[in-house]
# Entry
Amino acid sequence: MRTLLNTPLDGTDLNPLLQDFGLIVHPPFLYMGYVGFSVAFAFAIAALLSGRLDAAWARWTRPWTNAAWAFLSIGIALGSWWAYYELGWGGWWFWDPVENVSFMPWLVGTALIHSLAVTEKRGVFKSWTVLLAIAAFSLSLLGAFIVRSGVLTSVHAFAVDPARGMVLLTIMLIVIGSSLLLYAIRAPAVKGSASYTLTSREVLLLINNIILVVSTAAVLLGTLYPLIHEAIYGEANRVSIGPPYFNTIFVPLMGLLAFALGVGTFSRWKKTSVVYLKQQLSKVLIASLAFGIVIPVIVTSEFNISVIVAVVLAFWIVFSIAKDIFNKTSNKETFFKGLKALSLSYYGMQFAHFGMAVTILGVCLTSHYSVERDVRLAPGDSETIGNYEFIFEGVSLQQGANYQADRAVITVLRNGDEYITLEPEKRLYYATQAIQTEAGIDVGLFRDLFTALGDERGDGSWVVRIHYKPFVLWIWLGAIFMAFGGVLAITDKRYRSKKTVKQSQNESVLSGSSSSKPTMAAES
Amino acid sequence: MRKLFLLFSFFSFFWACVLPVNAAIEVYQFDNDSQQERFNNLSDQLRCPMCLNSNLSGSDAPIAADLRAEIYEQILDGRSNEQIIDFMTQRYGDFINYRPPLNSGTFVLWFGPLILLLAGLLIIWRMGKNSQKLTPSELTVAEQQKLNDILASKK
# Structure
């Protein structure tokens, strides 16, 4: 061994990108999400094997699915937030394969949560729900395979190993193959017998499912298509599929989903009167159009159609929630008594839906109104964005535990008054000789000030990246609302008390047989 | 030993590839804001040919810096976005463009989701129609007995 070259004194060090608190908490959350879906999967397989796809099965699956989904929501948000502050690029999502494979189980998990509601309450779409439970877990396995095997090139794949990839592929094929086989044998025998109309809550939740599944399919297609294309057309004709593709496909689908969400909020099981829907929705529509058009035009004094559509949709969701809560409390003596009477799972749903509105606003506003400047500043120079003036004070050399850093001091003035000092760093890690930026960020509810340090130019000036990012926090705030909604739904008292569960199970057996069959007779 | 050395150099290469995801920060002076915006959009949309998976604006690799400089020159020369993308595609193939072209090879990619969505909505529509026509199924003898028992016990 004495001839071994370049024996490192300190070992090779962990990849500097990963030496960060965000990366301590991000993987366990994702893992809980992925593995959490195995519970829903196991319930689905057990139900298929035993042939008992009943309301009890759906009820048992629901809290577990919510838990896995909430963990995954936080996990994905943490990953995106980490990329934002750690990579120093000012972005937060790149539709990279590794991001996509975490997003697909989340999308299918969202569909599963909604379809489980229908299966529990109405006993229909059972085989579809089972298929979603299988898909959510299978996509988690596919994610592990893609991330670890290196079949797709990604900037986030940190422990690529083809041998492990083969093992993961084998596990994945066995699990997916056998569960789909079981599904093919058992599912055709499963039939729901309850009836519903085109404007029923059943159908609206099914529309939610279709949109989410198509979104998943688009993400899957975009992620794997480069491989397929290369196999058919050869390596010389490779294509790249990135944000322009995904945004073109995904954004309209989410717009459709947001629209359906508002309608779905007012829908009722079995049948919703079209007159009632129109009456409820017309007010929400007028209010959301008014607010969604007027506010952006006044604030930005320009008419940007894609911003207006997004803001209108966000208001559409928020006003639907508000109107629905108002409807549901108006029969009680006081508003607060009405609020108290609503179940935690109802609040869970509304919180998660509100989270979607928040994320829509965050994504749209930060994409359209971010100001990005890469400027060359000598000590004492300044750069102004809106009310903020960034004064570059200079750079000093700092020693870290396993790195040395050039740390810049940037004083920020707001309307001429001293506001905050940002200290972006450029670090050189000794062990790997890797250079790593640490952004200096002032986080705010309505805007982030983002600074990153570039290279030194011979004359003592430095290249500095200064971004003004409005509403960027809302992207992750929305995810927190969604996850909180999932947690609220789990803590609903029907899951907590043994006695209540027993009682309501009896009720659901009763209502299951009475709603699915005899009421049909009453109707016809 | 030679093997170990090769392994080591392989890993050094690997690090070199992985790490330049740190955003490249440079200064380009433009005549107006719309040129700046076009430059940002183009370097977001075009891929760094040597990196794992990052666009020109997100890469520190020398080739990415060269290509950014190329975009900058061409924008100042008054060339349009299409001309610049065509130029890049001729040099590096479709691989350089994160927006895949629409042709027979990518038809499924671009229209697959739309077709799937329409098919799904059609299925829902038919299911909803059919469900309304569903006739109630008869209770089995055992179910009828259970129902009677329950009704009796409620009295």
